Amino acid sequence: MSRIASVTTGPYAPPVPSRTLTAVSADGARLHVEVHGPDDAPPVVLSHGWTCSTAFWAAQIRELATDHRVIAYDQRGHGRSPASPACTAEALADDLEAVLAETLAPGEKAVVVGHSMGGMTVMAAAGRPRFREHAAAVLLCSTGSSRLVAESRVVPLRAGRVRTWITGRVLGSRAPLGPVTPVAKRVLKYATMGAGSAPHRVEACARIVHACPRAVRHAWSAVLAALDLDHGVRQLQPPTAVLHGASDRLTPPVHARALAAALPNCLGLTELPGIGHMTPIEAPELVTGRIRELVDTHVTGAGPVRIKEGA
Protein backbone atom coordinates (compact mmCIF):
# COMPACT_ATOMS: atom_id res chain seq x y z
CA MET A 1 0.00 0.00 0.00
CA SER A 2 1.57 3.29 -1.07
CA ARG A 3 0.16 5.48 1.71
CA ILE A 4 0.83 5.14 5.42
CA ALA A 5 -2.23 3.17 6.59
CA SER A 6 -2.13 4.39 10.18
CA VAL A 7 -0.31 6.69 12.54
CA THR A 8 2.87 5.14 13.93
CA THR A 9 3.05 6.70 17.38
CA GLY A 10 0.64 7.57 20.16
CA PRO A 11 -2.58 5.92 21.40
CA TYR A 12 -3.90 5.29 17.87
CA ALA A 13 -0.83 3.45 16.59
CA PRO A 14 -1.94 -0.17 16.05
CA PRO A 15 -0.60 -2.57 18.71
CA VAL A 16 1.32 -5.65 17.58
CA PRO A 17 -1.02 -8.68 17.70
CA SER A 18 -0.24 -11.80 19.69
CA ARG A 19 -0.87 -13.72 16.47
CA THR A 20 -2.39 -13.29 13.05
CA LEU A 21 -4.35 -15.77 10.99
CA THR A 22 -6.47 -16.01 7.88
CA ALA A 23 -10.18 -16.78 7.90
CA VAL A 24 -11.65 -18.10 4.65
CA SER A 25 -15.19 -17.00 3.88
CA ALA A 26 -17.92 -19.00 2.16
CA ASP A 27 -16.90 -17.79 -1.31
CA GLY A 28 -13.19 -18.28 -0.71
CA ALA A 29 -12.44 -14.66 0.22
CA ARG A 30 -9.47 -14.48 2.59
CA LEU A 31 -9.68 -12.24 5.63
CA HIS A 32 -6.81 -10.88 7.70
CA VAL A 33 -7.49 -11.55 11.38
CA GLU A 34 -5.56 -10.36 14.44
CA VAL A 35 -5.73 -11.78 17.95
CA HIS A 36 -4.53 -9.64 20.86
CA GLY A 37 -4.25 -10.58 24.53
CA PRO A 38 -4.28 -13.85 26.50
CA ASP A 39 -5.74 -16.91 24.83
CA ASP A 40 -7.73 -17.83 27.93
CA ALA A 41 -9.28 -14.38 28.42
CA PRO A 42 -12.92 -13.52 27.59
CA PRO A 43 -13.25 -12.76 23.87
CA VAL A 44 -14.31 -9.57 22.13
CA VAL A 45 -14.79 -9.46 18.34
CA LEU A 46 -14.38 -6.10 16.57
CA SER A 47 -15.86 -5.40 13.12
CA HIS A 48 -14.82 -2.08 11.56
CA GLY A 49 -16.63 0.21 9.16
CA TRP A 50 -16.45 1.37 5.56
CA THR A 51 -12.97 2.55 4.42
CA CYS A 52 -11.38 1.53 7.73
CA SER A 53 -9.25 -1.38 8.98
CA THR A 54 -8.16 -3.09 12.19
CA ALA A 55 -6.10 0.04 12.88
CA PHE A 56 -9.38 1.83 13.63
CA TRP A 57 -9.66 -0.14 16.89
CA ALA A 58 -6.14 0.63 18.18
CA ALA A 59 -7.29 2.40 21.34
CA GLN A 60 -9.77 -0.35 22.25
CA ILE A 61 -7.27 -3.11 21.51
CA ARG A 62 -4.54 -1.48 23.59
CA GLU A 63 -6.77 -1.16 26.66
CA LEU A 64 -8.79 -4.36 26.40
CA ALA A 65 -5.98 -6.76 25.50
CA THR A 66 -4.55 -6.61 29.02
CA ASP A 67 -7.35 -8.90 30.23
CA HIS A 68 -9.44 -9.78 27.15
CA ARG A 69 -8.81 -11.78 24.00
CA VAL A 70 -9.47 -9.17 21.34
CA ILE A 71 -10.20 -10.41 17.82
CA ALA A 72 -10.15 -7.82 15.04
CA TYR A 73 -10.37 -8.44 11.32
CA ASP A 74 -10.18 -6.47 8.09
CA GLN A 75 -13.40 -6.44 6.07
CA ARG A 76 -12.87 -7.78 2.53
CA GLY A 77 -10.99 -5.26 0.41
CA HIS A 78 -9.96 -3.25 3.45
CA GLY A 79 -6.65 -3.22 5.28
CA ARG A 80 -4.80 -6.49 4.62
CA SER A 81 -7.81 -8.43 3.33
CA PRO A 82 -7.73 -8.73 -0.49
CA ALA A 83 -10.54 -7.21 -2.52
CA SER A 84 -13.31 -9.49 -3.72
CA PRO A 85 -15.84 -9.13 -6.55
CA ALA A 86 -18.59 -10.08 -4.08
CA CYS A 87 -19.65 -6.90 -2.29
CA THR A 88 -22.96 -7.61 -0.58
CA ALA A 89 -24.45 -7.60 2.90
CA GLU A 90 -24.62 -11.39 2.68
CA ALA A 91 -20.86 -11.51 2.03
CA LEU A 92 -20.26 -9.38 5.13
CA ALA A 93 -22.32 -11.86 7.18
CA ASP A 94 -20.40 -14.77 5.66
CA ASP A 95 -17.13 -13.09 6.59
CA LEU A 96 -18.13 -12.51 10.21
CA GLU A 97 -19.21 -16.14 10.51
CA ALA A 98 -15.86 -17.25 9.07
CA VAL A 99 -13.97 -15.15 11.64
CA LEU A 100 -16.07 -16.53 14.50
CA ALA A 101 -15.47 -20.09 13.30
CA GLU A 102 -11.72 -19.54 12.98
CA THR A 103 -11.17 -17.86 16.34
CA LEU A 104 -13.73 -19.22 18.82
CA ALA A 105 -14.25 -22.71 20.19
CA PRO A 106 -17.63 -24.39 19.62
CA GLY A 107 -20.18 -22.72 21.86
CA GLU A 108 -17.74 -20.09 23.13
CA LYS A 109 -19.42 -16.76 23.82
CA ALA A 110 -18.07 -13.31 22.90
CA VAL A 111 -19.13 -9.69 22.84
CA VAL A 112 -19.41 -8.63 19.19
CA VAL A 113 -18.83 -4.95 18.42
CA GLY A 114 -19.65 -3.34 15.09
CA HIS A 115 -18.93 0.23 14.02
CA SER A 116 -20.77 1.70 11.00
CA MET A 117 -20.54 -0.94 8.24
CA GLY A 118 -19.32 -3.31 10.94
CA GLY A 119 -22.61 -2.81 12.75
CA MET A 120 -24.42 -3.51 9.49
CA THR A 121 -22.36 -6.69 9.25
CA VAL A 122 -23.76 -7.76 12.62
CA MET A 123 -27.31 -6.99 11.49
CA ALA A 124 -26.79 -8.97 8.30
CA ALA A 125 -25.55 -11.94 10.35
CA ALA A 126 -28.25 -11.71 13.01
CA GLY A 127 -30.16 -14.77 11.85
CA ARG A 128 -27.11 -16.92 11.11
CA PRO A 129 -26.64 -20.01 13.30
CA ARG A 130 -22.93 -19.43 13.97
CA PHE A 131 -23.51 -15.82 14.99
CA ARG A 132 -26.25 -16.89 17.40
CA GLU A 133 -23.98 -19.60 18.76
CA HIS A 134 -21.21 -17.18 19.67
CA ALA A 135 -22.73 -13.73 20.34
CA ALA A 136 -23.35 -13.23 24.05
CA ALA A 137 -24.00 -9.51 23.60
CA VAL A 138 -23.59 -6.84 20.93
CA LEU A 139 -22.50 -3.22 20.83
CA LEU A 140 -23.61 -1.22 17.79
CA CYS A 141 -21.61 2.00 17.32
CA SER A 142 -22.58 4.76 14.90
CA THR A 143 -24.56 2.65 12.49
CA GLY A 144 -27.93 2.29 10.78
CA SER A 145 -29.99 -0.33 9.02
CA SER A 146 -31.47 1.50 6.00
CA ARG A 147 -31.97 4.90 4.29
CA LEU A 148 -28.30 5.70 4.82
CA VAL A 149 -27.98 8.16 1.96
CA ALA A 150 -31.39 9.78 2.44
CA GLU A 151 -30.75 10.47 6.13
CA SER A 152 -27.09 11.54 5.81
CA ARG A 153 -26.35 15.17 6.67
CA VAL A 154 -22.92 15.33 5.08
CA VAL A 155 -24.32 17.65 2.40
CA PRO A 156 -25.67 20.79 4.16
CA LEU A 157 -29.03 20.99 2.38
CA ARG A 158 -32.62 20.44 3.43
CA ALA A 159 -33.68 16.79 3.38
CA GLY A 160 -35.20 15.69 0.09
CA ARG A 161 -34.49 14.32 -3.35
CA VAL A 162 -31.84 16.90 -4.23
CA ARG A 163 -29.81 16.30 -1.07
CA THR A 164 -30.13 12.52 -1.47
CA TRP A 165 -28.94 12.69 -5.08
CA ILE A 166 -25.93 14.87 -4.26
CA THR A 167 -25.03 12.82 -1.18
CA GLY A 168 -25.06 9.65 -3.24
CA ARG A 169 -22.67 11.18 -5.75
CA VAL A 170 -20.34 12.47 -3.03
CA LEU A 171 -20.15 9.27 -1.01
CA GLY A 172 -19.99 7.12 -4.13
CA SER A 173 -17.31 9.14 -5.87
CA ARG A 174 -14.56 7.26 -7.68
CA ALA A 175 -12.15 10.17 -7.23
CA PRO A 176 -8.91 9.44 -5.35
CA LEU A 177 -8.69 10.97 -1.89
CA GLY A 178 -5.06 11.91 -2.44
CA PRO A 179 -2.48 12.54 0.27
CA VAL A 180 -3.41 13.46 3.83
CA THR A 181 -3.11 17.23 3.64
CA PRO A 182 -4.46 19.89 6.03
CA VAL A 183 -7.37 20.50 3.63
CA ALA A 184 -8.11 16.78 3.39
CA LYS A 185 -8.19 16.54 7.18
CA ARG A 186 -10.61 19.46 7.44
CA VAL A 187 -12.94 17.80 4.94
CA LEU A 188 -12.81 14.45 6.71
CA LYS A 189 -13.34 16.07 10.10
CA TYR A 190 -16.42 17.94 8.84
CA ALA A 191 -17.96 14.82 7.31
CA THR A 192 -17.17 12.24 9.96
CA MET A 193 -16.13 13.79 13.28
CA GLY A 194 -17.30 16.24 15.91
CA ALA A 195 -16.21 19.87 15.71
CA GLY A 196 -14.10 19.52 18.87
CA SER A 197 -12.12 16.47 17.73
CA ALA A 198 -8.45 16.83 18.60
CA PRO A 199 -5.93 17.05 15.74
CA HIS A 200 -4.23 13.75 16.61
CA ARG A 201 -7.60 11.98 16.36
CA VAL A 202 -8.36 13.58 13.01
CA GLU A 203 -4.91 12.55 11.80
CA ALA A 204 -5.49 8.95 12.90
CA CYS A 205 -8.82 8.75 11.06
CA ALA A 206 -7.47 10.42 7.93
CA ARG A 207 -4.53 7.99 7.66
CA ILE A 208 -6.85 5.01 7.86
CA VAL A 209 -9.53 6.30 5.47
CA HIS A 210 -7.10 7.59 2.86
CA ALA A 211 -5.34 4.21 2.77
CA CYS A 212 -8.51 2.47 1.56
CA PRO A 213 -8.28 1.76 -2.20
CA ARG A 214 -10.71 3.95 -4.11
CA ALA A 215 -12.15 1.00 -6.06
CA VAL A 216 -13.02 -0.67 -2.75
CA ARG A 217 -14.44 2.56 -1.36
CA HIS A 218 -16.66 2.98 -4.43
CA ALA A 219 -17.82 -0.65 -4.54
CA TRP A 220 -18.96 -0.67 -0.94
CA SER A 221 -20.58 2.76 -1.21
CA ALA A 222 -23.01 1.28 -3.72
CA VAL A 223 -23.87 -1.52 -1.31
CA LEU A 224 -24.48 0.92 1.54
CA ALA A 225 -26.62 3.19 -0.63
CA ALA A 226 -29.07 0.35 -1.31
CA LEU A 227 -28.85 -1.30 2.10
CA ASP A 228 -32.00 -2.42 3.90
CA LEU A 229 -31.32 -4.49 7.01
CA ASP A 230 -34.42 -3.57 9.01
CA HIS A 231 -35.30 -7.27 9.10
CA GLY A 232 -31.86 -8.04 10.56
CA VAL A 233 -32.44 -5.62 13.43
CA ARG A 234 -35.61 -7.48 14.37
CA GLN A 235 -33.68 -10.79 14.31
CA LEU A 236 -30.85 -9.56 16.54
CA GLN A 237 -31.63 -11.58 19.67
CA PRO A 238 -28.55 -11.07 21.91
CA PRO A 239 -28.68 -8.20 24.42
CA THR A 240 -27.64 -5.18 22.34
CA ALA A 241 -26.40 -1.75 23.38
CA VAL A 242 -26.48 1.19 20.97
CA LEU A 243 -23.90 3.98 21.14
CA HIS A 244 -23.98 7.01 18.86
CA GLY A 245 -22.42 10.42 18.43
CA ALA A 246 -24.99 13.20 18.72
CA SER A 247 -23.08 15.19 16.06
CA ASP A 248 -22.83 12.31 13.58
CA ARG A 249 -23.48 13.64 10.05
CA LEU A 250 -22.78 10.40 8.19
CA THR A 251 -25.29 8.28 10.13
CA PRO A 252 -27.29 10.81 12.17
CA PRO A 253 -28.89 9.89 15.52
CA VAL A 254 -32.23 9.14 13.85
CA HIS A 255 -30.68 5.77 12.95
CA ALA A 256 -29.66 4.99 16.53
CA ARG A 257 -33.12 5.83 17.81
CA ALA A 258 -34.72 3.60 15.20
CA LEU A 259 -32.40 0.75 16.17
CA ALA A 260 -33.15 1.14 19.86
CA ALA A 261 -36.89 1.06 19.14
CA ALA A 262 -36.72 -2.01 16.89
CA LEU A 263 -34.20 -4.24 18.68
CA PRO A 264 -35.87 -7.14 20.49
CA ASN A 265 -33.45 -6.95 23.45
CA CYS A 266 -32.08 -3.42 23.58
CA LEU A 267 -29.93 -2.51 26.57
CA GLY A 268 -30.32 1.19 25.91
CA LEU A 269 -29.09 4.00 23.69
CA THR A 270 -26.18 6.21 24.68
CA GLU A 271 -25.84 9.46 22.71
CA LEU A 272 -22.50 11.22 23.08
CA PRO A 273 -22.72 15.04 22.87
CA GLY A 274 -20.21 16.66 20.53
CA ILE A 275 -19.09 13.32 19.07
CA GLY A 276 -19.38 12.52 15.37
CA HIS A 277 -19.33 9.27 13.42
CA MET A 278 -15.91 7.96 14.48
CA THR A 279 -16.93 7.10 18.05
CA PRO A 280 -14.19 4.52 18.87
CA ILE A 281 -11.52 7.12 18.03
CA GLU A 282 -13.36 10.23 19.22
CA ALA A 283 -14.53 8.75 22.55
CA PRO A 284 -12.21 5.79 23.14
CA GLU A 285 -12.64 5.52 26.90
CA LEU A 286 -16.44 5.52 26.68
CA VAL A 287 -16.52 2.88 23.93
CA THR A 288 -13.99 0.69 25.71
CA GLY A 289 -15.85 1.06 28.99
CA ARG A 290 -19.12 -0.02 27.39
CA ILE A 291 -17.43 -3.10 25.93
CA ARG A 292 -16.04 -4.01 29.36
CA GLU A 293 -19.49 -3.69 30.91
CA LEU A 294 -20.97 -6.03 28.32
CA VAL A 295 -18.23 -8.60 28.86
CA ASP A 296 -18.61 -8.45 32.64
CA THR A 297 -22.38 -8.82 32.47
CA HIS A 298 -22.89 -11.23 29.59
CA VAL A 299 -19.66 -13.25 29.20
CA THR A 300 -17.87 -13.62 32.52
CA GLY A 301 -20.93 -13.04 34.66
CA ALA A 302 -18.99 -10.78 36.97
CA GLY A 303 -21.40 -7.89 36.46
CA PRO A 304 -20.49 -4.21 36.67
CA VAL A 305 -18.43 -3.08 39.62
CA ARG A 306 -20.58 -1.19 42.09
CA ILE A 307 -19.36 0.94 44.99
CA LYS A 308 -21.45 0.66 48.15
CA GLU A 309 -22.78 3.88 49.61
CA GLY A 310 -20.59 5.09 52.42
CA ALA A 311 -17.59 3.08 51.26
TrEMBL record:
PANTHER family from the UniProt entry: AB HYDROLASE SUPERFAMILY PROTEIN YCLE (PTHR43798:SF31), MONOACYLGLYCEROL LIPASE (PTHR43798)
SUPFAM superfamilies (UniProt xref): alpha/beta-Hydrolases
Descriptive protein name: Alpha/beta hydrolase
Sequence intervals crossing the membrane: none
AB hydrolase-1 domain: residues covered: 44-287
Record keywords: Hydrolase
Coiled-coil regions listed in the entry: none
Domain of life: Bacteria
GO molecular function, one term: hydrolase activity
Keyword Metal-binding: no
